[in-house]
Amino acid sequence: MCHELLNGLLHDQHHLDRIYAAITLLEDGFPQARKRNIDRNWAFAILRQESAFMQDAESGAGALGLMQLMPRTAKLVASQDGRSNPSRSELLQPETN
Question: For 35-74, what is each residue's pLDDT tens digit?
Fold first, then answer.
């Protein structure tokens, strides 16, 4: 249903591909959001606002990826989860970001 609605609203195939990738990520359970009880609709809105669904988005301030994480914040969250510090390339991967 979402896919048909988006097809009707958007004509830019590249942009549609980015949105489909974000929807797929959310439909696959968005495990980190679910783990933290983050509403998936809220997470989708953040993806839209912060990165316009661009996985390789990088802000002038240095925020990276779909959720526009600052590397220091990602490092803090990773340490709280008992994981190693994510590299720049890992922060650009939707599964990590």
Answer: 778 887 888 888 889 988 888 999 999 999 988 999 999 9
- Region 24-41: mean pLDDT is 74
CA distances from 6 to 42, 45, 68, 80 (A): 18, 15, 23, 37
Angstrom distance (rounded) from CA 23 to CA 3: 9
| pTM for this predicted structure | 0.69
Token pair in block for residue 61: 């301030």
Q: What's the confidence (pLDDT) of residue 26?
A: 67
CB contact at 8 A, 93 and 65: yes
What amino acid occupies position 54? M
Handedness of CA 7, 8, 14, 18 (dihedral sign): negative
Secondary structure element (H or E) that encloses residue 67, with its range: none
Provide the terminal-to-terminal Cα distance of the chain, rounded to the nearest Å.
26
